Amino acid sequence: MNAITSAKQEQVNVTTKASLSQIELTETVGNIYADDAKMSIRNANVYYGDKQAIDNISLDLAKNQVTALIGPSGCGKSTFLRCLNRMNDTIDICKITGQFTLDDEDIYAKSLDPVLLRARVGMVFQKPNPFPKSIYENVAYGARIHGLINNKAELDEIVETSLQKAGLFNEVKDRLNDPGTGLSGGQQQRLCIARTIAVSPEVILMDEPASALDPIATAIIEELIDELKEKYTIAIVTHSMQQAARVSQHTAYFHMGKLVEMGKTEDIFTRPSHKLTENYITGRFG
Amino acid sequence: MTTPKETNTPSGFTSKLHLDKHISRRFNEELEQVRNLVMNMGALVEQQVNDGLRAVLNADEKLAAKVIERDREVNTMELEIDEYCTQILARRQPAASDLRLIVSVIKSITDLERMGDEAVKFGKNAIKLAKGSFAEEEGARPLIELKHLGNHVSSTLNRALTAYAQMDVAEALEIIKDDSIIDEEFDNISRLLVTKMMENPREIKNALRVTWCARALERIGDHTTNLCEYIVYLVEGKDVRHSSIEQIKASISK
Lengths: 286, 254
Fold this sequence. Notes:
The structure holds 2 protein chains of 2 kinds.
Chain A (H helix, E strand, L loop, with lengths): L2 H7 L7 H5 L7 E2 L6 E12 L2 E12 L3 E5 L6 H7 L10 E9 L2 E2 L7 H7 E4 L10 H11 L6 H14 L3 H4 L12 H13 L5 E5 L7 H14 L4 E5 L3 H7 L2 E6 L2 E7 H4 L6 H7 L5
Parallel strand pairs in A: 1-11, 4-9, 4-10, 7-8, 8-9
Antiparallel strand pairs in A: 2-3, 2-5, 5-6, 10-11
Helix pairs in contact in A: 5-6, 5-8, 6-8, 8-9
Chain B lengths: L12 H5 L7 H33 L3 H32 L3 H36 L9 H26 L2 H31 L4 H33 L8 H9 L1
Helix pairs in contact in B: 2-3, 2-4, 2-5, 3-4, 4-7, 5-6, 5-7, 6-7
């Protein structure tokens, strides 16, 4: 019997939210500040109608580094990530307070165009979502609508370099006009990353980018994240603790809408300070 | 044989590390099993050290042979625990305190195995001493000193294993501090033996054998200190090797 099936067949103790909440949440422990912050968030609160999804979270995203956001389902990590490029604007009942800055600029300022913001702060989703167009068009689309190019030659170059940076070019160079949806899952995800890169973002947000991929495609994406951080600041939401440990330099642990602990990844996974963090990453209940 | 009382109760070790609190019950059992294996190995090594010492002091050839023979069991246990830890690393990818537990176990059993090797040295020297006459020499002061050092080292090892079972950092620190006393006693016995050798060159061979035994005890003391350092690492997450006792206390209180 292999490890996976035996793990599945194990009896699983039932854990309830009540048992987790018995440990009192106070201030965030660890260090939320970065020496060289690309984005800074202070006292963020997010409400969906009456329900508070994010409770007074402050943290920095360090420039050219990878910050992993981890925590159980419903802890608010994806909601938080979506605030960073105003993806929550489209939800009517969503109310956001607090300060969100990108290079000291308020991203919720009235004068700021959210479409331009989303070019600077790109996003990659859990399920690869290429447009039902050719591979070339998938990558070219953003550059074209943002008016980043003057002629076809420039566009060709952007498409090629973006695909190269996403580690996909060699696999698709002979079939750029084939539909993007015909690629494998891992290739589609890299196509989405290429599409994000094509508009020259400064920050890339990734919401479980590898959770729908097999281990090899996952390893390729993780390798890519490691290379991308040279040019971009990256925040990644992941349910895989090992992935967070592998790819990130900073880790933030979310729990029931609060930021429990943030620190260097090397510390969080060997000697976390907060009991809740310890319980989560070691698979313990309350 | 003096076995730490707490070995088979869930207090101390299990409760302090919350080993019984994983969502996966099987993982709880695996970690509990690792812990039991280490405590069993510790008990066996302690017995080896005590028996080896007794063999030397009583010139008991039979017991000495038994100690040498039983070292195989110690070695087998080391291999078994190593394999068990490798399996847990591969299949569970432990983190935080679970990871520190596995790392400290892997390190601890190396020290325990080496202590076992030192016990074998007693055995070998005991056989040779029994064949010589030194043991029966009237007023064999070196052996009395060796007994004294041996009892000290043995009780320190027992305390360390109990501290391991209870995850008792305060006691671990006390033991680390006490290692300098063992070193001093070793120096005393060495001086005494050098004097003996100068007085009576015909006894050099036997005096050297006692020196080697004393040296083995001193090494066991060092390995015991290592065990205590792993206790601190396991509980506090601080690596305190190669630090003075003051530095260790300062880093823990941070």
